Amino acid sequence: MIITTGRLDDPEVVGLLRLHLAAMHVHSPPGTVHALDLAALKHPDVSFFTAWEGGDLLGCGALRRLAVDHGEIKSMRTAPQHVRKGVAAGLLRHMIKVARQRAYLRLSLETGSGDAFQGAVALYEKFGFVRGEAFGGYVASGFNQFFHLPLQAVGADGTVSG
């Protein structure tokens, strides 16, 4: 699996993002979808990653800068034909590494509840994310849930603090 930055102009990537947004709307109550659309993913505070094997798009994810020391995981989606092959874990591992390189002290994410979100929640918990408070302007509801992962800061020289 090769993980690259960008490629938001690739038709396959655009299709996967459309699938992601549509699924979020199907499995979420009205007004509770916080997935980023294509325009929002192009914001300078967002780094968008895609995973590939040969010419096949495996999945995508984004890392949004909330503050100098705080990032948010967004837009995680595995292409349907590559589910349960470790794609999401590979993307999440990559984004955690990037967050550490940027000296983020915490990564957070917001996700939904119910059967459609159980796989994602299990993945985040496997990586050490723990349930916590709302962040970044989100308003807690009976549907959404929030997870946080404390990180050690890695300096430009490779030294670890925290």
UniProtKB/TrEMBL annotation:
Residues 3-152 form the N-acetyltransferase domain. GO terms for molecular function: acyltransferase activity, transferring groups other than amino-acyl groups. Pfam families: Acetyltransf_1. The keyword Acyltransferase applies. Keywords: Acyltransferase, Transferase. InterPro entries: Acyl_CoA_acyltransferase, Bact_Acetyltransf, GNAT_dom. The keyword Acyltransferase applies. PROSITE patterns: GNAT. This is Putative acetyltransferase.
